[in-house]
């Protein structure tokens, strides 16, 4: 006990005397013994479990925290580890001394971590701190991590795969009703974030100790802005185009929304992204024309795994209104992804899988999202990525009956969109714009294959939609009849249309084969299967008589249906 008391007094005096030392008072991190004293005092309070000891330590630790935060702008050394040790004291003993840790935590993120996220030691210690206190943070401070998710993404984007395993445990805490939608584009754009951070480092030096958010008021970022302009326009820093003396031709406005939206530290809601602008297209092109850094390679591998967790949580825990609001955002970003071949494939695969899973869980989303879906169908010609999205949407429309039997008006409008897409394809022998003669035979073959695939999906969707909404049957017969008579080069298309026309002459069979797997009344049914248990009391409509109708001569089987039906 005597040794412990001496240690206690010595560490307490160390904190007290630090306030009188001018060097330490102005820069507490200057004295490394302060960190050890804070940790030792914390351990002693933990071991003794004495409110009196906590009450004696708290004033000195609190003063140290305030001095540390005030010295951040002038500090020459990292102060993150010291603040994390003090925050641990606040979390464990704050209730005993009536200290609300929330303002202190936000001060740490806003004032310290924003400057030191690029320090690998501070980054690792921060992630470990969040993991160690995850339960308390999520219950007592549920809005903290969602508010600072952009800063946490900067941390993992800069520090790479070595922190991925630990960060993945923290990641679910970044999601809340207020951060769910803004988090999605930030995850997809993690590679762009790395490119932007590397440009900041290249122009302004080390990111450690510098707050990017303060650059808006700084006179130093001219070089940074010129580098960003190079990404936007392709011009070099010195050329400035035709008017090299013009500021506008060589720099970007310091308040450029694209720049600050990428590098912000806090969640300020879902902002309009500018990825479809010519400037962003140029920035993406500039990024792929230079060799990839190790950081960029790391984030290209990590981001799809973060999306896996994000979509898994979305389907399991997020309410339908937020999931429904996410789908149009997902559609708009499908064609605008960092142009790395493997990365774009992995991300688009996950986007489409999530979209179809969301439609499977809530088919009425299709009716609610009628307008954005029809807009995407109208863009099916623009690019292979948009064609693939249109294919998946056509499948979902048909599979889920346009949202169900209760959404007849929406189903009719979706049907009209499919009709328009069908007729446009029939009138054109290719996808895309331009003249046939300017394309190679390989590209023509590829476009014809894409068109045939799209037509097959559209034809199927029309047949399925009309099967679920019988008032559309006359129009469906007209549409499919035109395809069947068109005799276009791909025989699979017009044969499929002809087969569907034949099926639709037998409504019961058509409903069995092409009906929804989840009817509006909620009872599951599996298209194309025979419910033999109902055979003794109900007409067998699931047996595809239409297929048997193509046979000539006597029946090719030697059994009776009554032999296969259960007897009472």
TrEMBL record:
Residues 31-154 form the AP-5 complex subunit zeta-1 ARM repeats domain. Coiled coil: none annotated. Residues 290-519 form the AP-5 complex subunit zeta-1 C-terminal TPR domain. SUPFAM superfamilies: ARM repeat. Pfam families: SPG48, TPR_AP5Z1_C. InterPro entries: AP5Z1_ARM (IPR055450), ARM-type_fold (IPR016024), TPR_AP5Z1_C (IPR056856). This is AP-5 complex subunit zeta-1. It comes from Prunus mume.
